Batch of 3 targets.
Target 1
Amino acid sequence: MGALAIKNVTKRFGDTHILKGIDINIDSGQFLILVGPSGCGKSTLMNIIAGLEAPTSGEVQIGDRVVNDVAPKDRDIAMVFQSYALYPTMNVRQNIAFGMETRGVPRKEQDETIARVAKMLQIDHLLDRKPGQLSGGQRQRVAMGRALARNPTLFLFDEPLSNLDAKLRVEMRTEIKQLHHRLKTTIVYVTHDQIEAMTLGDRIAVMKDGVIQQFGSPEEIYERPANLFVAGFIGSPSMNFIDCHLAEQDGAVGVSLQSEGGARFVSLPDGQRFAGHLGQKVILGVRPEQIEVAEEDEPALLCKVHLTEPTGPDTMIFTQINGKEVIARVHPRAAGRPGDSMRLKLDLGKVVLFDPQSEARLG
Amino acid sequence: MDNQNKLWRIALYGVLLYAAVYYLLPLYVMVTTSVKSMDEIRAGNLIALPMSITFDAWSKAWSSACTGVDCGGLSGYFWNSVKMVIPAVLISTSLGAINGYVLSKWRFRGSELTFALILFGVFIPFQVVLLPMAQTLGWFGLARSVAGLIFVHVVFGIASTTLFFRNYYVGIPDELIKAARLDGAGFWRIFFKVVLPMSTPIVMVVLIWQFTQIWNDFLFGVVFSSGDSQPITVGLNNLANTSTSVKEYNVDMAAAIIAALPTIVVYVLAGKYFVRGLTAGAVKG
C-alpha cells in the first residue's frame, strides 16, 4: 500500500521557485530520506507534507486520501523538529500529553500512552522535569516521545539530530533505526548529512535547487549516481572526478590516465556502451575505496603520495591523476608516506562516467 | 599599577556616591518636609532633620486639603486613579499581547505594514490628538468620565504594548507554534497554553510600563475629565495651586509623595522582572 505520494508538487514565493515539480512515491513502512544542501527545498517539502505550508500546485496523498485541504492536525502525522520544539513551560509529561489533551483523549488512556512511550524511550524518570533541565539527548527523546504518543501513520523528522554532538548523534541515529524496525511506521526524514541518509534510508531523494536529482535506494544512489552532484554529495570523502578523453585502443574502449609516475590506458569493462562518446571529453568518477594498491604482478599506475590522512581503519592517500587531486582509501599498512610512490589500480567494475556538459551519468 | 587601580576605584565610587546623593536629595527633602510642622519649616533649614515627627500634613493631604473649592484632600482623586489605571493597564496589556502574538506568529498579507502603522502611535505627540479625541469621546458618550479616560489610555497604550510583545514573541521559535498546530491546538489554545505561560518577563515589563505611564499621566486627565472623575495627577496640581493664606509646604510634599507612591511600590515589587524582561529577548529561547 502506498503510504505517501507526492505528485508534481511545486512551491513558489513570488519569482522564487522553491520546489519545481516534485514526484515521490513510497510504500507503507518505508524510511524516506530527503537529503540535500541547505536551500534545496527539502524543509519546504517537509512542511508541505505536514500541511504547515500549502503547495503552489500539485497533490499530496497520505495513505489513500489526498490531504491538500486537510489541516495539519487531521493528517494523522507526527513531527519531530530540529530544535525539538518542546513547550518550555510544561514538564515532560505535559509535553507528551498536550496533543492528546487537545484531541480529548480520556485521561486514563493518556496515562497509559505516556507510560508506554516513556518506557520505550527510557525517559520514565524524566517525566516531571521541564525541558530546560534536560540534556540535548534527553530532549531529543522527549520530542520523539511526543511524536510516538500520537501513533500516526506517518512520522516526519526534520533534521532531528543536527543539534546533538557527534557521539550522541551516532547513538540516536541507531536508536531511530531500531525504533523504525520495531514500529514499522512510515518515516520521512529530512537531513543535510549524507551519512545519516545512507545509514537510515530505504529510499533516498537527493535534492538540489528544488529538483529531485535522484530517487532510489541507498545502493543505487551510491553506486550509480544519476549525475555529478549526487556523486559528489553522497560519500565521504567525495568521489574523485578525473577529466579524461574516451578513446579506443586495440578494440577496447577506455581512457588514458596520467600520474606523476607514468601513464596508462585502462579499458572499461563493457566499454562498447560508451561507443557513442568516443573521442569526447568525459569525467571519470572513482570513489576513494575503488582505488586499490596493486599486487606485484598487476599492471598499475605509479602515483606519488602528496599527503596522508590516517583515520584508523583506513588511510587516505592524496595523489594526482590527469592533473586532478585524487584521494585513495587504502589499508594503513599498505599506505606509503608523503613523497613515496605507490602502485595503484582502479576497480574498473565500479567506476562511472559523466558527461562534462550535462553532468549526467553515461551508460 | 595596583595603587593606581585603587585610586580609580575611589574616584569611581566618589562619582557614584555624588550622583546618588544628588538624585536622592529631593526625595529626602520631600520626606522630611512632609513630617515637619509649619512652624519648624518656617524657622528651620530645608535639609535639616525634623525635630519632631508629625503626620498631620499627611492626613490633611489625604482627606482635608483644599483642591479648588472642595476641601476633601486627595483621597477621591486617588481612588479615581485606581479605578482608571487597573482596567486601562489590564486591557491595554491584553490587547498588546494578542496583537504581538498575531503580528509575530500568524503573519498575514500586510501584517508588517499593520505593525508599522501601529508603531506610529508610539511617536505621535499626544497634544495633536486632544481635539479629535475629545470629539470622539463625546460621540461615544464617554466625555468627562473615568470610562472615557480608560478608553483613551487603552487606545494610546496599544502602540507600545504591541511593540513590546511583538518584539518578545519574535524571539519565540516558530517551530513551537508548528508543533502545537500539529498537536491540534488552534489560535487561542496555542496562545493561552504555550505562548502566554512563556511571557511572564514581558508581561511584567508591560504592566510596570503601562501602570507608570497611565498613573503619571496629567495631560489626558486634565483635558478629558472633570469634577469627580479626575485622576490624582490633576488633584495634586489643584492642591498645589489652590491659594490659601499660607503655602503649606508640608502638605504639598505629603500630597506629592502620595501621588508618586503607587508607581514606586510597583517598581520595587516587580522591578527585578523589568530588567530581566527587557534583556530576556536577547537570550536564545
Target 2
Amino acid sequence: MLTRRGFLGTGVAGSLAAFLITPAVRGEAASGVPIEAPAPAAEPVPQRSGTTRARRAADRVPLHAVLFDERFAEAVRFGNEARRRGLPARGVRGDLTDFWLAELHPLWRRQARPIAGLTAYAALFCLERLAWDHRMRVVYHGALAPLAVADFAALLARIESRRGWGGLPCAPPAAEPRSPAGCSAPLHAWVIAPAARAPERV
Amino acid sequence: MRTPPGVGSEAFAAAIAEFEQAVGKEWVFTSEEDLDLYRDDFSPFLGEPEERWAAAAVAPTTVEEVQSIVRAANRHQVPLYPISTGRNLGYGGSAPAYSGCVVVDLKRMNRILEVSEDNASCLVEPGVSYFDLYRHIEERGLKVWVDVPDPGWGSLVGNALDRGGGYTRPQFRNHFDAHCGLEVVLPNGELLRTGMGALPGAKTWQQYKSGFGPWIDGLFSQSCYGIVTKMGFWLMPRPEAYLSATVLAGRRDDLYALVQALNHLENGGITNGMPDLGSPLLGIQSIAEYARSMQDLAQPAEDPELLALREQAATGAHEPLEAYGRRTGLAYWTFTLKFYGPAGVVRAQWEHSKEQFSIIPGVRFREDPLIRLPLTEEQKLSVHWPDFGIPTLNMFSIGARSMSNANPTHGHMWFSPIIPRSAAAVFEANEVFAAAAREFDLPVLRFSLPSCYWERAFIFIFGFPVTTDIKTNQKNRAAFHKLIDTAAAHGWGEYRTAPAFQDAVMSVYSFNHHALLRFHETVKDAIDPNGILSPGRYGIWLRHLRARRDREAG
C-alpha cells in the first residue's frame, strides 16, 4: 500500500532536493550511487507502515539507473559516459515497456529510487506519471542541444559527488541534436527522485 | 483554498474535515501543488479559464471509507468526481467534468481480490492497473490473459466503465462486455452489488452476469450514478496457438467484398482476433505496423511516383494507382486476420477464411509463422504485445517528435465516431470528413481506414492535437463541435468523448425529443437528489445545473 507521499509524490515543504528515505532504502546502495539527502525537516513524514519517522541528514538514496535512448547519437554518448563513470546505464529504443515491466516497476513497488535519463519526451512523460504513484517527481528537466550534452555530463559528475539534486539548473530549450538516422528531435535530460516540491508541468 | 461552486467556505471546510476523519488527514489533498496533479494533461482548455479543476482530492482505501466520503458530501452538498487511476488521457484524464468537484481518487484501492484460472475470471478494485494484473498473472504462472488497451497503465475498472477496448477475442476486447458483476457505492452512500452479487453468499458472482430482474450494470458505465468499488471480469484462457495472416487485394473496389467476407467470418466466430486493416498503396499502416514504426525515427522514403499517384487517386483516378500496385506488388488493401485456439483449429480457420476471400480476383495471401504459446522471449521482440494480453506504453510515442511527426503536440483529444461495418460507409465517411476538414480549415485527411475494436461496427479514431497555443486549441475545439454535428447528420455518433464535448455528443443522441437524456436525468434526480456525484459526466446534470448547461449551450 502506498503512503500519502507515495501517492502524490508529495512531501513536506522544503528544497527541491528534499528526499524521503524509507528504512528499506537505507544502506541498500547495491549497484546504485548513493545520493546525500538535504538537512532534516522538523516535520515528521508518514512512512509506508503508517507510522512516522523524521528524516535524517545522513540518509542517502542510491541512483538506480541512467536511461538513454539509443536511437540518438548524443544519448548513446551520454550512456557511454555514464558507464565510464561507473553508473548503471540502460539503453531503450523509445518504448519503455520492457524496462518498466522487467525492472523499474518491481523496484518501485518495493522502494522509491531515483533515475535519470536522456531520452525523447515520450519516455519522460510516461515515467513522470508513473513516478507520481511512487512518491517521486521530476526534479530536473532540460532540453539539450548537442553541445549541452557536456552539461549533462556535469550533472553526472554532480551525482557522483553526492551533492544531491538541489539547485540543479534547468537547461533552456535549445537547437535540436541529430539522430544517427538524420532525424531532428529534441532530447530531454531529466532526473526523477523522491521530491518535496512539484516540478513545473513540462 | 478554492471551493466548489455554490458551496460556502465554511461548509467546504466542514466537508474536508469529515473527509479527513474518514480517511486520515494525510489522504486529503487541498494544496495547489497537489491538486495540480489532477489536471487533465491533455486538456483542450490548457491555459484557459474553462480548464477543469478540482477543489480537493481524497483517497480512500476501503469501501467503508468511500461510503463515509459520499455521506459527508451529501451533508455538505459537495460534488464528488471519482477516478480510478486517472489515466484516461485523450478522454479527460483525472480532471473532473465539472470544475470544483472533489476528486475521489481510488488509486489506493488496488487489491486484486481473486483470479480464478478455472473460471478464467478475476475480481479487482478500481486502483488495479493492467500492468498490476498482468504481473500478478505472470508471477503465478496462470494460464489466463487480460485483454489490454493502448496504453496498459490505466485501470481495468476505469477503462471498462468508460467502455474502452483492446485487441484479443471479441468478448474480451470489449472491456465492459467482459465484466461480470459490480459493487457500487450509490450516491446516498448505500452499497449495491449487481448480478449474482445481490445474493448474499453467492458462489457465482463472477460466473453468471445478469442475476435476477432488470440488469442494471450498464447504468454505471459512462455515468454518474455510483462509485464502482469492485468489478469482476472474465479473462481469456491462454490459447494453445496464435496465427496471423493477411489478405491482400489490388483494387480500390475490392474493399466491398473484403468487408463483406470479413463480417461473415467474424460474426461466425471463424476469425476471432481483432482484424487489422491497412493500405500500402494509400500509405496507411495497419495498427501493428504503426506500433512497430513508432520506434523507428527514420521512415523509409516513398517512391515519388507513388506519392503523385496517391494525389491522383484522391481526385477519383484510382486505376493508375492500382496499375502501380500490379507492377510493384503493393496491395491496395491488407486485411490481417488473427486466430486464437488449438494449432489445428486455427489453421483450419485460416484455410476456410482463404476460401471466403478467394472470390476476389487476384487476391493474395500471406501467412505468418504459427506461434505456439506462451511466447518465447525472442518471439516477444517481433509481435504486437496487446495481441497477446501484454500491456505496453508504446503508444505514447504518438505525441513525441519523430521523423514522421515533426511537430509533436501537447496531447490529443479523440474524435471517435462509430460507423457501419461496410465499405460503402468507409468511403462515405472519408468523403464527409474530408469535406468537413476543408470547411473547418483542418488538415485534410487523404484517406483513413477504420478500426475493428467492436464487433459489427467500424470505428474511426481521429486525434485532434492539443497544443500550448490557445488560439489553435480554440479553433480545434470549434472544429470538433462541428464534426460532432456533421457526423450526427449522417447517422454516426461518438462512442466516448472528453468532458469538454460530452454535452455536445449527448445532445445529438436526441431521438424523440432527447428521450434518452431525459430518462438519464430522471434516474439522476431520483438516486442523487443532492447532485453530489460527477455532475455533468457524459452530459447528465442534476436539475439545478441543467439551466446552466442549457444556457451555455445557447
Target 3
Amino acid sequence: MYRYDEFDRRFVDERVAEFRDQVERRLTGALNEAEFKPLRLMNGLYLQLHAYMLRVAIPYGTLNGRQMRMLAHIAETWDKGYGHFTTRQNIQYNWPKLKDVPDILEALATVEMHAIQTSGNCIRNITSDPFAGVAPEEIEDPRITAELLRQWSSLHPEFTYLGRKFKFAVTGSEHDRAAIKVHDIGIQIVRGEAGEVGYRVLVGGGMGRTPMIAKELRAFLPKADLLPYVEAILRVYNLHGRRDNKYKARIKILVHETGIDAFRDQVEREFATMDRAAVTAPEGEMERIAAYFAPPELTEKPSAPVAFERMKTLDPDFAQWVERNTSAHRVPGYVAATISLKPIGGVPGDATAEQMRAMADLAESYSVDEMRITHEQNVVLPHVALGDLYKVYRGLAAIGLEAPNKGLVTDIIACPGLDYCALATARSIPVAQAISKRFASNKRQREIGPLSIKISGCINACGHHHIGHIGILGLDKAGVENYQITLGGESTEDAALGQRLGPGFGYDELPDVIEKIVDIYLDLRQGRRETFLQTYRRVGMEPFKEALYATAD
Amino acid sequence: MAKEFKPSVVTANDLIEGDSVFLGALGWVRDIAEARVALSRDEAEVLEADGVAGEDANIVVGPYLIEVSVATGRPVPVLRRERIRVSGVPTIPFGVAAPAERRAA
Amino acid sequence: MPRLIDRLGPAEDIWTVLGAEDPLPSSGSVIVALERLDEALAAGLELGVHLPNDTDPERVKPHFDRLSLISVDFPSFTDGRGFSIGHCLRALGYEGRLRATGPVISDQFDFLLACGFDEVLLPDSVAERQPPEHWAAAEGRITLGYQRGLAGRGSILDARRTAGDG
C-alpha cells in the first residue's frame, strides 16, 4: 500500500499545524463561525446533533494494522471507545471535542493518515473497489489512479471552494464494486483498441434529493491525460455550476441542464486549449505510485487443503461463513475474507476499539498486514490463505464479528440518522436493527439469497437508499417518522435507481412491511437462483404494491 | 395565520466541547431544567437575541429556539429531534454498550 | 485597518473605484465596471476593471495590454468561481496586477496566490479581525502543493523528481 515520502509527510504535518492555528483563531474570534465552518469541514469536523463529529479519511478504503490500532487508540483517548465506518470507506467519531481535534489529527499524521477533505464543498475522499489488487478479472489496480487523484485533489487551490461537494470513484474491473455510476465522476479502467490501458470517464451521477445515473463523458481517455482532463471538468463545473441553490449545485444538475453533449463540448474545448503538459503528472510519477501497490508475494497453495476441508465439515457455522463471506483471489489457495460489521441487531458499520485491535491483529497475522473498508460498511482481509481461514474465523467469533451475512438481507447499510445526525428527519439505526432481528435466522437469510437493504434517515441519501434492492427513506410527517420504500435499486455496472412503492409506513410497521416484500419475492421467484432483483425486474412493482396496499383500499 | 406561541428555550452547541447547551438565568447550562423559558413572543425574542450574543461572544454555535412543554415543571421539547438532542445520546445502546447488549440478549 | 494586502504586507491603495454614475476623471488610476470599460478605454486613463465572478475571462482578453489591474469579485469567501477566473486570466496571458475583492479570508491567501492573484482588497468587517500578521502567517504555510502548473506555488510532484535526481 501507499507510504508517505518526506513531501507527503511535510504536507500533512503543515496541514495539522494550520488547523491548530485555525482553532486558536476561532476561539479568539478572529475567525467567526461562518468563516470557520468550511475550514473545519475541510478537516473532517462537523457539528452534529449531540456533539462534534470527526470523519477520518481512509483513502480508497485501504489501511494496515498500525493505522487500525491508531483508530482504536483515538476512539479510546478522545472519544467513547468506538468508531463508525462509512459508505465512503472512511471512519467517523461521534464525540470529539474541538480543543482535542488538532491533537487527534497530529496522532493520525504519525501513521500517515489525515482528515483532509472528508467534508466540505471540495473533492472528497476518492473511493475504490475494496477488492482492488485481488479480484481475478481486474485490468489494473484502481488504487494507483485513486492515489494520483488523491494527491492532485488535496488542497487544490482552484477547486477547494466549489459550489458543492464532489465525489470520485475508481474501478479497475468491469464488475463495479465502487458504485461509479452514482458519483460526480466515475472512472473505469479499460483497454483501448490496441490493448493499452486507459480510462472510461463517467460524469454527473449522484444520489441525494435528485438521484441520477452518471453519463459517459469519454469512452476512452489515454492514461497520461487523466489530470488535465479532470482539471478541465472541474474548471467547467466551478465556473458554470449553479450557485443560487445548494440543492441544484452538484455537477449532475449542470450536466442535466446543459445536456451531456453540450457539457462534453465545453470540457473538450477547455481540455484542447489548456496547457496540458503543465498539469500532467511528470513521467515516472504513476510508476512511483504503482510500485507501492505491487501485489504481495504470495506462494501458491493448495486450493482445498485437507485441514480446511475438515474444519468445514466439523463446524458447519464456519462452512457457512466461508461460503458467504469469502471471495475469489487471483492467487490459488487464497481468498479475500469479508468481516461483516452487521452482527444481528448491531449498529451497521460500528466497531469498538477492542474489535479494531482484533481486526488489526488478524490482518497482521493472516492478511499481509492489510485491510479494506467497503462502501457496504464492512471490512475486508484481502489476502488470507485457506489454511489460515479457520483461525481468522475463530478470531472474529471472539469479538462477535463472525456473522455469515455478506450480501444478505441483514447486511444492511444505514446512515447514522436521527440518533446522531443534525440533518436527519428520522431514525435509521433502530430500523436496521429491527429488520436485522426479524431476519436473524441464517437459514432463512440463505434461503432469501442476495438482497441489499439500504436506509437513509433523510433525503440527502447518505444511506444510499436509491440503490438498495430495497431502499428505505425516513422522513418526518407532521412530527411522526414515516418511511418511504423503493424497490429495484442497484449500485453495480447495471446500476438503477429504486422506484417508489407507494405511500410511506410508520416506524413500527417496517419489519412487517419488509418481511411481506420478501415473502412476495419468495412466492414469485422462478427457482432458488432467481434473486430478488431479477424477480423484481421480471415482475415489476405491481405484485408488491397490490399485496402491501390492497387491504388498505 | 400566525402560529400559536408555545413556551420556548434557546439551545446551541458549546463551541469548545460541542455538546448541547441551553440559555439559563446566568449563562449557558447543560441541564434543560435550568433553562430560561420564554412564555411570550416578546420574551422569546429577547431570549433569542441573548443566544445570538452568545455566538458573537464565541461561547456557543448555532443558537435557536425550541418549543417546549412545561406541564411537568421540567421543560420537555415538543419535537422528537429536540427530545433526542436534549437526552444527549442516541435512542439505542451505542459504542461499547452495543455488543454487550447483544451478548446478553 | 489596512484593507489592501499583498505578499509584502499591507499596501496603499492607489486605485479609485468609479461608481456607475461617476464621471470619468481626467487623470489618475481608476477601476471601472465591465459595462464602462469601452468608455474608459477611450479616455486614456491608467485603467483597472472590476469583473463579477460570472464573467467569461475571454471577454477582457482583447484589452489585456491596456489594463494595469483586474479586480475579480468574491461576493463571499465560499464562492470559489473567482479562483478559476484568476487562473484563466493568467492562462490567457494577462500579466498585469490581479486583485481579489471581497470578504476572502487569510486561510485562502495561498490559494489566491497560486491562482495568479497578487493582492486582496478586504471589507472592513474582515480586515478588522484579520490583521496583516494573519496574512503573513498564512502565506506559504503549506510549503509545496501536489498540483502542477500553478503560478504561485511549487509542486511536490516536481520536487520528487529533483530529490530523486539529487
